[in-house]
Write a structure and sequence with these properties.
This protein is α+β, with helices and mostly antiparallel strands. The chain has six helices and eleven strands.
């Protein structure tokens, strides 16, 4: 018989797990990892920014995508992938970053999907589903940390120097500033470890004596604070 068990701690863990997975996925797909120095579409690029007069804008560069403004497009900014194939990503460090982030996000999405069903199923092959998911989130967090640590090492690539100037070097962003996607990825990584730790609380809440008492009373829907 399926017992639907809903507690505040288990629902909070489920919500945070979904937020962490969604945040990391959005950050990975975004082009707003680096924000370049101000320039105009027809500018001559120098070490200190754009030299041509006109309405300036700041291009953005992601792990595999970018947003730029073309001369023939007066107001619209064109966003899309600059790398069609994996080998075209700006540097080997960013390729490694892509692999680690993708692996972490895949695990987080799997946990987020499973977490929705934890109201009905609390075990997998006689193992607590919360403990298993917490372990997967911890592994995902390690993958995310490795990816974020390797990401700045790729700032010395030719691609980054086009956006950030000749001063850009590994772990030195040059004339660029960090975009919201980088901070979102960092926040999602912290939240991932919070979820991994909090999964133990979700397990305790759904296996408490009060839950067992209500199961013995024959209740199929159990809601506890």
């Amino acid at each position: 018989m399926c017992h639907v068990i809903v507690t505040c701690r288990s629902m909070l863990w489920t919500l945070l797990s979904i937020v962490a997975a969604f945040g990391e996925l959005i950050a990975f797909m975004s082009t707003d990892w680096l924000v370049g120095f101000p320039r105009t579409p027809d500018a001559v690029f120098g070490p200190h920014g754009a030299t041509a007069a006109g309405e300036a804008y700041r291009p953005t560069l992601g792990i595999y995508g970018r947003c730029i403004k073309l001369p023939q497009m007066k107001r619209r900014i064109l966003c899309g992938p600059y790398a069609i194939h994996f080998g075209e990503i700006a540097s080997g460090f960013w390729q490694a970053t892509s692999i680690f982030l993708a692996a972490g996000i895949l695990l987080l999405c799997a946990v987020a999907f499973i977490s929705v069903f934890t109201m009905c199923f609390q075990s997998i092959m006689k193992k607590s589903i919360f403990n298993v998911c917490g372990l997967l989130q911890g592994i995902a967090g390690l993958f995310l940390i490795l990816g974020l640590m390797l990401y700045p090492a790729g700032w010395g690539s030719d691609k980054v120097q086009l956006y950030c100037g000749a001063d850009a070097a590994p772990y030195q962003a040059g004339l660029c500033s960090m975009g919201w996607a980088f901070y979102t990825a960092m926040g999602g990584t912290v939240l991932t470890f919070v979820c991994a730790v909090f999964s133990a609380q979700a397990e305790i809440a759904t296996s408490s004596d009060k839950v067992q008492e209500e199961i013995e009373e024959g209740k199929s829907l159990i809601c506890l604070l």
